[in-house]
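Q: How would the structure tokens look for this protein?
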Amino acid sequence: MELLTEAHFWVGAAFVVFLAILVFAGAHKFAWKVLGEAGDKVRAQLDEANHLREEAQALLARIQSDREAAEKLSAEILANAQDQAKRMQAEAQERLAEQIERRGQLAERRIATAEAQAAAEVKAAAGELAAQMAEQVLAARIAGAKTDPLIDGALGQLAGKLQ
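A: Here is the predicted structure in token form.
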């Protein structure tokens, strides 16, 4: 009976009675329910986190594919721009060569025209000079001789024809 006088015994007995009351009152069902609800909340949060993770991975994959497509497009645009620049440079060089050739031909034509004009001017000047010289020679002959045998002969013929 010494057992009934020890405090440990009564604490143990009170604990067993307390547990029995809790079991009888259904506290274990409440604890399982609370733990189950907490587990469900944690499970729902994990499911939502997994869902968000999957969405983030899908978004990342889409962004990476968009980036790759944009890089490919920019590379194509750059290549096209370089090709177009080369074509434009070649065309500009061709146009420049054609323009230089046309200007050279135009200059040659102008030179030929200027040469022809200068030759015509020289011929005209030579003709005028020859006419002036002939006039001076004739004037000197007429002044030196009162009668010109050619004129006299022409007048004589003219007189014979008029009669």
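The first helix runs from residue 7 to 25.

The helical segments are 7-25, 27-144, 149-162.

Upvote if useful.
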